[in-house]
Specification:
This protein is of the alpha/beta class. The chain has a single domain, classed as Rossmann fold, CATH 3.40.50.300. The protein is built from seven helices and nine strands. The chain is globular. GO terms for molecular function: kinase activity. Keywords: Kinase, Transferase.
Length: 186
Amino acid sequence: MRRGVLLYGPPAAGKDTITAALSELDERYVPFTRLKIGTGKTQGYRMGTPEQLAALEARGEVIYRNDRYGNVYVVDRPGLDQATEDSRTPVVHLGQMAGMEQVTALFPAHWVRVLLWCSKDTTAQRSPQRGDTDTAARLAAWDATRADLVNHPQAHWELRVDTDVTAPREAAQKIDDIVCATSPRS
């Protein structure tokens, strides 16, 4: 059975940092690199073209798509298939409940859902520290993520982590404990 970790949270909640800590803990944890169509930051993305996106959509291989910051971000079936090869466990970053629902519904795997949270003030501090040039947009996304979460009170989480007070390695260990307990690795 394929496994995966879904990290949900607002911008600068620590998704990249905790993914790195998971990878240090066990090399089978791999960051899922979303397909990005647009401009700006390229690190951590597979850059694509509008034509590639249209082809994926025509084949029904787009699991989740969101438009934010003037770009299109895609979780695609071929990308997830590749990320789960050789017993690897992809770590997918999402900031929308619709994405959480789509991935768990459309890509069969044992998904561990983790809510990462930080205060809006923390996002305001961390955003420029990590090189964002659009902190105001990140803060608007924080508000949208909070509203999205409030509008989905039935959301199920295997773990909730307040990254204002929880160290990345501690969070990674807690996530790994859940992955191992609910879906033992071979």
